[in-house]
Every structure is written in C-alpha cells, then in structure tokens.
User: Fold Cytochrome P450 from Prunus armeniaca.
Amino acid sequence: MEELLMILISSVLVCVSLYYYIFKIRVNGTKNKRLDQHKLPPGSTGWPIIGETLEYLRTGKKGVPEKFIADRRNKYKNSSYYSSANCKVFKTSLLFEDMAVLCTAAGNKFLFSNEKKLIKSWWPPHLDKLIFADSAPDEKAKAFITEESTRFRNTMAPYLKPAGLQKYVGTMDTFTKKHLDMYWEDGKDDDQVIKAHPLAKRYAVTMACRLMLDTEDQQVFNKLENLTKDLSSGFTSLPIDLPGTQFNRAIRGSRQLREEIKNIVTQRRIHLSTRKVDEDVDGLDILSSLIMDTSSDGQGLSDSEIASKLYGVIVSGYDTFSSTLAAIVMCLAELPHVYDAVLQQRQIAESKAAGELLNWADIQKMKYSWSVACEVMRLLPPNSGTFREATSDFVYEGYLIPKGMKLKWSVHSTHKNPEYFPDPEKFDPSRFEGQGPPPYSFVPFGGGPRMCPGKEYSRLKMLVFMHNVVTRYRWEKVFPDEKFVWNPALVSTKGLPIRVFPHNKSQSN
Ligand code: HEM
Assistant:
C-alpha cells in the first residue's frame, strides 16, 4: 500500500516539477522599496515542491550530512555579497518550503538571539498533526508545537533544571543498575551478544516512565514503549495520512499514547484524593507534584494538560537521547584509550560504601565523561537542527530575507567545520576542556530561548548510564565497520549488536 502510494506521489511530483521547471515559476521579493535593492541569498531551490530534499536526505543516509552544506558553501562562495567572504547563507528548498540556511556560528547566534524580534520558531505542518494527533477538538485548546513547547518549558522547568533534578540522581542510579541486570546481564544470548541501540531506546522510555510517572510496571513500560515507537516512526515517514500508511499508524500511536498517559494521571489523581492532608508533600514524585501544584492560577492543571507535558518528556527524549547513548557505546568500543579514561570513574564507585548510590556531587566529578558525550554529539548529533520563520523583511549578510521565508540552522554547518574544530574527524574530548569550542559552534541542543529544555535531564541520564556501564563491563562491536547514519534521524545501521564482558567475570577468568 505504502509503495503504491510512493509511486503515485512520485509520478505526480515529477509531472508538477516538470511543469514548474519549464515555466520557471518563482515567487520572490518584498514590498519594501528600501530592501528591494538586496538580492535573495545565492542558491538553488532545485525541483519545484521537492526542492533539494532528496539530495539533503541522500547525504545524511551516506553518513555525511555536512557535505550538503559544505558543497553549497563552496559553490556560492564567489557570489557572496561581500566577494571576498565565504558564503554564510544560501537558499534551498527542503520539506516543501523555500528556505535560507545560515551556515556559520555567527548565523546560529543570529537565529538564537533574534527570537521574537525578527524571527519565530517554525515546524513543518505535518509534525503538528503527528504530535497533536487531533487531540484538541476545540479551537481554544488547539495548540501548535511552538506554543506547546513554551507551556512545556514553563511547567516542567522546576523538574528539568539542575536544582530540580538533583534529588533524582539516586533513583536514576538504581533504575540504571536494574536495567543493566535485566538486559545487559540476563538479556545476553549464548554468544554474550546484546543489541545496544534498541536497548538504549528501552532505557530512554522506561527511565522517563520511572521518573515522570513513578511506575516500574513492565506492562505499562511495554505499552508506552510500543506506542512511542509507532509515533516515532512518523517523524521519518512520508507525511501521508491515509489508512495503511506508516504516518497514519504513527498518528494513531500518538493519540493512544496521550490517552494512556492521561489514564495514569487520572488514576493517580483519584489515589491522591484519598490521602491524608498532612502527608509529606515534599516527598512527592513528579506526577503527584504536577497534580497537586496549584501555584499558577489556584486551580492547577487538568489531566490532559499534565498528560501533554509528560508525553512531551517521553517523546522528545526517545530518539535523540537513545541514539546518543548508543553512539556513546559505539565510540567507547572503538576507542579503548577513551574507554580507559572514562573507567577512571571507578574511583567514584570504589569510594562508596556497599549499596551507596550516586549523588549530585559525584556527577560534578564526571567532567571527562561529559566531554566524551559532547564529542560524540559533535560527530554524531542526534538532532540535525530546526527551523525558524522571518516575521518581517530584513537583510542578513547583505541578502534579503523576506517576511515569511523559512530559515534553517544546522549542527552540520559547524560541528565538522575545521574553522571551529581543527582536524574535525578526530575524536578528541579535550576540545571541551578549558574555554571549550568557539561560541555557537557546538549546538547539539540548539540555543537561545528555544534551546532544548531537556538538556540537563539528558546530561544527567547520560552520565549515570556511562558510569554504570563502564564500571561493570567492557564490550566490543559484533560488526566492526558498523556506523551511524542520518535516515533522516540518527540511526545505527544494524542496531549495534555488541559482545559484553562483565569485569568481574573477565577478572576471575
Ligand atoms: C540527547 C538528547 C537531546 C538532544 C540532542 C536534543 C536536541 C534538541 C534540539 C536541537 C532542539 C531544538 C532547539 C532549537 O530549536 O533551538 C530541541 C528542542 C526541544 N527538546 Fe530536546 N534534545 C534532547 C533531549 C530532550 C529531552 C529528554 C526532552 C524532554 C525533557 C527534550 C525536549 C525538547 C523540547 C520540548 C524542545 C522544543 C523546545 C522549543 O521549541 O521551545 N529534548 N532538542
């Protein structure tokens, strides 16, 4: 069904493309006479409608997404407004939209610091459909990703910032140990092999359920993981909402996931209503705190609103966090000297009494591990970058950006650019020591007011995971040449099977 549709759609796109190509229809320009003297950025919008999307996807699939940008920077070098300068912005067309790609650290800074001045956040419309899945029947409740992200940030900030996260370090540590017991220890096949990438996804979703919903019920884990998996497949499928398509399944997954979470919220609210009033409110878990919180307007959040925030945590961290974790596992297998340096953290474990859990002070000591995680995200960033929209006409680097034009920043512009990262292919965590990379060149979490609100939460989970896994195991890749590519999300090509050797066993052997 999906294949037939693909053929049909491709044929229609090719016909329409030819029509546009022959008649060269282009709508550009501005009504503002003063700005009219400026040209649009150099570049090609490729084929009508599909633009340069296929070329963009092709480079990602080959594992070299930076090539899409570098090729255009080279090509349009001499057509720059300032003839001696390198190309800092080019025009293209991706995801059915003409857009300008700002491709320097200064460009990132420009976009991150002009939110609500010259630009606003923009998401491709099919993502609204996927994420909200018609969950808001009346117009009043209808939210778009940008507005919902702002509400998410406001409500969840107390739980996702370092001050709020500190008290969950021990819970994360305990949960990680259980995860390793269950899947890295008992889950191995006869050949000691586990599949690290799917397990990282399981870890991401179950850890989110443990922390946000305060549950360790395996049935709940399974149900929510399956629905999250269905939903996540919609981010990378063709956005065609017809019965039988992947996108349609993903929308259904999204709707059911919200419903499941809402049911859990409702049950917890009923449970809480039977509690004695003088019970300790400070000791409440995150879900109970959200239910009991009436600080904003004295009324508190509805079950749907709370479900929406928790859905945000589970979904936003699913692919990004898990692929980073899997990429860390891969790099530590490939680079024994880096693994050994991370293993120095054994000292933290050795300084503890039996059964004593990690705490916030331990996390602060894991500076090298964080540099390793950053270097992994530099080379294998799980989120390629997002979009903005011009809210008025303006001139950038001598080129006109008309109101309504979409703008893109990309991690692939700077992360492998030797201007910011000398010898860019080399894995070198020391880049993050001292002053670190030049400002706005290392941007795996974005920046400015829309910077990822899950950054600290992700950092903490990565460090707790790295600490536990390195102090318990060594491992090797089953397929030494396996790599990660962007398809268009960051994926391991074979699921990253690894052979695992517990330290205690290898020592006793
Ligand atoms: C390694 C893990 C992660 C990476 C690399 C990552 C990266 C990003 C990036 C690049 C953006 C776009 C920022 C921008 O447009 O300037 C973003 C946005 C966002 N992230 Fe993350 N993210 C990660 C994990 C998470 C987690 C665990 C959560 C949930 C707690 C989360 C929640 C969000 C939300 C809600 C937004 C939208 C922010 C807005 O538009 O205001 N992310 N993330």
